[in-house]
Amino acid sequence: MVVFVVMVVAQLMRGEGAGTIASAAPFIHDGATMSAVLMGATIVCFSFIGFDAVTMYAEEAKDPKIMPKAILLTVLLGGAIFLVAAYVTQLRFPDWNEFAPGGDMQYVEDSTLPIIGNLVGGNVLMAVLTAAGFCATLASGLASHASVSRMLLVMGRNNVLPQKAFGYINPRTHTPTFNIVLVGAISLLAIPFTLELIAAWINYGALIAFTFVNISVIAWFAIRKGRRHTPRDIFSYIVMPGIGMLLTGLLWANLHADALTGGLIWTALGLIYLAVITRGFRKKVVAFDENQAVTGFNKVVKVPVDES
């Protein structure tokens, strides 16, 4: 990415593209309507989910206290890379018609990355960026695979799912092997679908998570803990999560119709399952205690609650 950015900056200074490295055009222009920005945000949302997957490795961290910093750094560093790369690329290619059918390069569905690589650095950079794209896809898949497996482990350990299978830890590898194999098998079912549809479905799950994270902050701190009487508490535990819910709601309004349909079916199945295991919502699924000991793969640690 550094090589790519340096090459693009050099081309901009030679007068190519927008012909400048300092411009507000990538952020503000005639085509940047609010509806277009919100529609793009629901798509780009797919690129940023994953920072929360860091939390799934809390039990394997040397010190769980580092998790909040790890999440924040992941968001900031990842966001900075996205912002810089997108900014210089937009200046170098201000007109998307360069990638349209009939242009200098053959249009590739779902990806302009090889075309951008070729136009910036020829066949060599095109090959490098394409290979990097494949590597990033594999890395993303492995990270998601591992984090989902560990989420299922927690659900199994808390008897939300059958504990014998989902709560199983392989004594030799200290990993939830049953969950890993199961997630891999289910993931293979995604092969026939388009990237657009998969991204839309993932966004539904991400928006569900982001919405309920904000609801949980209000429910736990403001309501259950009574942290709502000082200006600081009101701002931290009511205003900020309320703003988060509002912004997430704007993304909900622009979600892909197929994702909304599939997601609602998935949610309905989950509610039915929840009703069964709670005997009609009369029994708690799991009780959360902020001072409870969490059993790790190789150790037992006390997990503190970081209220920030």
Automatic annotation (TrEMBL):
Q: What does the UniProt entry say about where the protein is found?
A: Membrane
Membrane-topology annotation of the record: Multi-pass membrane protein
**Transmembrane annotation, as ranges:** 34-58, 70-89, 124-148, 177-195, 201-222, 234-253, 259-277
Q: Which InterPro entries match?
A: AA-permease/SLC12A_dom, APC_superfamily
The chain positions of domain Amino acid permease/ SLC12A read: 23-220
Question: Which superkingdom, per the lineage?
Answer: Bacteria
* Database matches in Gene3D superfamilies: Amino acid/polyamine transporter I
Keywords attached to this Swiss-Prot or TrEMBL record, sorted alphabetically, are: Membrane, Transmembrane, Transmembrane helix
Which PANTHER family does the UniProt entry name for this protein? AMINO ACID TRANSPORTER-RELATED, PUTRESCINE IMPORTER PUUP
Protein name (Swiss-Prot/TrEMBL): Amino acid transporter
Q: Which organism is it from?
A: Microbacterium foliorum
